[in-house]
Design goal:
alpha+beta, Jelly Rolls, eight-stranded antiparallel β-sheet, elongated
């Protein structure tokens, strides 16, 4: 590691401690259903994902087909027992062989972001549902329709990018036959608990960059001719592609698993009271562990900050003792040196104002009154 890199890392470490100390008393505090404060630096940083360039998948994507012939091994025929698919890889695309049947991935997944590109035959044959027909089945359960609807009317809930049998797309933005179409799909499966639906599941679809399904409710998954009703899905399932008798082509297929929703234990801004309490306790524990590595004011602020998430008698006792020590040191500072303590005093006052505002400390907390008197005496509360 270069010396300059070491210096940068050291600076970042110092900066992080400083941001925690001030950021901990900045935005609205955690509450019964929000485990983090507003603008909370204790909240995990988003993981870095390198975006795909020139049509490539992002760095955290699981690639199902990128054009390589050997990737056909990631797929199998949709039969029981499974057998190798008869679909073909030609010129870097995965092509349906009419009459060979559906195919499915060996990989199984659930909630995801799915990207898939498809192309209907350039030679136009048939009409309505008989023209460039295929389908993308999330978890093998819900069909996002693939159909050549370029100047080709059909029943709207069977249109390209419809949730088949449930909801038509908001717009027809298909390119001409033979040209490539891109689907970007956000999929959330239904969640059931004790036989009761607690989240119906949703799909959002973008076609060639245009939103055609906006958080569409699944209503059980849809189907042909019969109205579906809410039902539980398996924990995971394959991606299926439909053989509907047309040589539709596919390319650039990848997905990214999505994090859990709050209703199934995921970390989100708004959570149940029980989940919030558990999360806040964990955050407080982490802050106290960080405080144990610190000294002086930095330690004091981190201990006080931990109380914003969950009370702890030892952390409270030590933190409050340190506030008394801080006030005493400030009172003992000679008059000719007191101005140099202005920044520390104002930061301390800000922290105590925050803690009393959100009732983490009582309004009549002695150190708050004392720091207010010192600030007023020195006229640090007046703008200059």
């Amino acid at each position: 590691m270069k010396r300059t890199t070491i210096h940068v890392l050291a600076a970042l470490s110092t900066f992080t401690t400083a941001v925690h100390a001030e950021g901990g008393f900045y935005g609205d505090a955690p509450d019964a259903t929000h485990p983090w404060a507003i603008h909370d630096m204790n909240r995990p940083q988003p993981p870095r994902v390198e975006p795909g360039k020139n049509g490539a998948a992002p760095s955290d994507a699981i690639v199902l087909f990128s054009g390589k012939a050997e990737e056909i091994e990631k797929w199998q025929s949709d039969k029981q027992p499974a057998e190798p698919t008869k679909w073909e890889v030609k010129d870097g695309v995965l092509q349906c062989v009419p009459g060979s049947g559906y195919i499915r991935t060996k990989e199984e997944f659930a909630d995801c972001q799915l990207h898939i590109e498809w192309s209907a035959p350039s030679k136009v044959e048939g009409n309505s549902q008989g023209r460039g027909n295929s389908g993308v089945f999330l978890m093998g359960q819900v069909e996002v329709q693939v159909l050549d609807n370029y100047n080709n009317p059909t029943y709207p809930d069977g249109f390209a990018s419809s949730i088949y049998g449930i909801n038509p797309p908001m717009a027809n933005v298909l390119n001409a036959p033979g040209e490539w179409q891109s689907y970007d799909i956000i999929f959330r499966r239904p969640i059931f608990k004790d036989g009761q639906e607690i989240d119906p599941g949703y799909i959002t679809v973008f076609v060639n960059g245009v939103c055609t399904q906006d958080h569409t409710r699944l209503e059980g998954g849809g189907g042909h001719m019969r109205r579906s009703s809410p039902r539980p899905f398996p924990e995971k399932g394959p991606l299926k592609l439909q053989d509907h008798g047309n040589p539709v082509r596919y390319r650039n297929i990848w997905y990214r698993p999505l994090p859990k929703r709050a209703i199934e234990g995921g970390d989100t801004s708004l959570m149940s009271e029980a989940a919030t309490a558990a999360k806040r306790a964990g955050i407080a524990k982490g802050i106290r562990e960080d405080a144990a590595k610190l000294e002086g004011n930095a330690k004091m602020y981190r201990l006080l900050e931990s109380l914003c998430y969950s009370d702890d008698s030892a952390a409270r006792e030590t933190g409050l003792k340190m506030t008394a020590d801080f006030i005493q040191a400030l009172q003992d500072t000679p008059a000719d040196k007191i101005e140099s303590k202005k920044g520390e005093a104002l930061q301390f006052q800000k922290a105590l104002n925050y803690l009393t505002k959100f009732k983490i400390l009582p309004e009549d907390f002695p150190a708050k009154k004392q720091i207010t008197e010192i600030v007023k005496k020195q006229e640090w509360d007046k703008k200059k």
